[in-house]
Amino acid sequence: MLPAIRLISEAAEFAARRHNGMARKGRGSEPYINHLAEVANLLAAVTDGADAELVAAGWLHDSIEDTGTTREELAREFSERVASLVVECTDDMNLPKAVRRQKQIADAPHKTPGAKLIKIADKVSNIGARIVPHPGQDERDDLADYAGWAEQVVAGCRGINPRLDRIFDDTIARARAALTEAGG
Ligand code: ZN
Hints:
Layout: H1 4-18, H2 32-46, H3 52-60, H4 63-67, H5 71-77, H6 80-88, H7 97-107, H8 113-130, H9 137-155, H10 162-183
Helix pairs in contact: 1-3, 2-3, 2-8, 3-6, 5-6, 7-9, 8-9, 8-10, 9-10
């Protein structure tokens, strides 16, 4: 396997190329890579940089779902564990959204510890992007809907890393405050 710094650097570059030109949902339609950087950095921070494959998988976690990257490619370029972490975080896009959402809630408790951490970091990032100044009705509805669902997924992922659990709880609290404020 590549040395830690190379593994993560290669993963970041791979993700930047694969997601090139994509925008994320929420806050000013930021480039998609901002989401991946946030997830990877969150994972690195809460684990004190102890798990390079986890951080690499953070960069790559949406690559199969959104860019047609294959598991084999990730296993060859990075490692078998990086590939399987990403697979664990990949939804079956042939299923309707409501079914995928329900499946995430049901499957969460059965994921490996690494995949659980990625899923929590992903939800932290996605909720954060939906907290915008002066939200309109649609933005409020979207935040309330997403945060409510994310809480159910994360309920099945908690207990691996208390720091990350706390960051998630703080993010939910920020979402609630934003909704209360905006709701008047
Ligand atoms: Zn993501």
